[in-house]
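Reopening this one. Same input as before:
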Amino acid sequence: MINKGLMSSKTDEWSTPQSTFDGLDREFHFTLDPCCTRANAKCKKYFTKEDDGLEQCWYDNVVFMNPPYDLEIGKWIEKAYMSSKYGTTVVCLVPARTDTAWWHDYVMKGEIRFIRGRLKFGDAKNNAPFPSAIVIFKK
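Same output, byte for byte:
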């Protein structure tokens, strides 16, 4: 059964599975979550939609990013990549959309870890209807 909420524009603020975040946090020791809600922030320092994380400085942080999976995702991936050029490590949880421009323009320049199986985001009853990947941008 497909979770229609994940396929629609009803929300783009699905919470990262805690176990996925915890494993990555043990490896990277995150300090900033730049695109979250107050309720699903994964780091002490975070930016909400109102803060507009795309306009904020990410430097001097180790960033965990689960961007909105809407038409703006390319801007978030570009920001992650460009931030890495200045020394910021950015770890992204993204849908594995290998046919998109943002994937080819930026993701292919990072380290890609494909996730086996399908993740269950937030309080969804079912797993996501798409595969996911972890993308790591480092200087």
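So the earlier flakiness isn't reproducible anymore. For the record, The CA atoms of residues 15 and 123 lie 8 Å apart.
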